[in-house]
Amino acid sequence: MSAGLAALLDDVAVLARAAAASIDDVGLAAAKAGSKAAGVVIDDAAVTPQYVRGLAAERELPIVKRIALGSLRNKFLIILPVILVLSQFLPVLLTPLLMIGGAYLCYEGAEKVWAKIAHHDAHGAGEERQADEKTLVSGAIRTDLILSAEIMVISLNEVADESFVSRLVILVIVAIAMTVLVYGAVGLIVKMDDVGLRLSQLPGAGVARFGRGLVKAMPRVLTFLTVVGTAAMLWVGGHILLVGADELGLHFLYESVHHLEEAAHDATGALGGLVGWLVNTIASAIVGLIVGAVIVAVMSVTFHRSKATAEHTDAGTDEPKAVDPAASDR
């Protein structure tokens, strides 16, 4: 009896060690997969604060929370099921779907650039954003859908050789970790001015001075993040399109950017890695801006034409109808 119990305990110990090793392997794989998507994670964290800029202080964290919950829904209800099924049965569709998302990011970024140039934001846009939180959150969640899809597909590519169950577990870990990381950082960013205000009221002169400096600096930081967020949309969107086109057999643009990156890398010595990355980023953003501008132009023409037609139709229905005198006599 004791020998059988000892054997059972040995088996349990072996299983426990195997499970621990599996957990370690999954954790390492999740960390590796997540690190590959770090660039998009930074972009996501830079994009989101612009959606809460100008809101009342007490509404900032609730809005960030709603966007974070929307991000989790994006990942678990849309992105994970779609990419896992496609990776299992129709992997060829992943790239075109990503490119559609990339084109949407380019459109969003180019639209923001055009709005800034044309001063469309000078007509009470801030008040509208404060008054319509539902629209604000919906726009942020739509943008998050594309950025989250990019994060998850990059992560999926890193664990493509794993079994289906391992891929699922790893991607769930990545989804939760990235959401906490991004929206935790966003929450800290948008509340830093409140932190500065609290510090400025403390008795220590140095702490109070630091708090006042933090309060003064945050508007500039948020303005900077708005610019970075718009640039990130164009960069990530353009990069998705470049890589996707290359994977679909259209190599010219991707190879041209790659050659520019290599030339910049080789010409700048110790700074080659940074300079090469900057060249690739700028080139991707330019591609994104061009594609986005084309989409904005098409949407603008289509929208204005539809709007003009609708207004003309409405005007036609508002015209008074002619009255037949003979009919009135009857």
TrEMBL record:
Instruction: Extract the InterPro entries matched here.
Output: YedI
Arranged from A to Z, the UniProt key words for this protein are:
Membrane, Transmembrane, Transmembrane helix
For this protein, the parts annotated as crossing the membrane are: 76-105, 168-190, 221-245, 274-298
Of the GO CC terms on this record, one is: plasma membrane
Region annotated Disordered sits at: 309-330
Q: Name one Pfam family in it.
A: DUF808
Please state what the protein is called. Inner membrane protein YedI
The record lists the organism as: Asanoa ishikariensis
Q: What is the lineage of its organism?
A: Bacteria, Bacillati, Actinomycetota, Actinomycetes, Micromonosporales
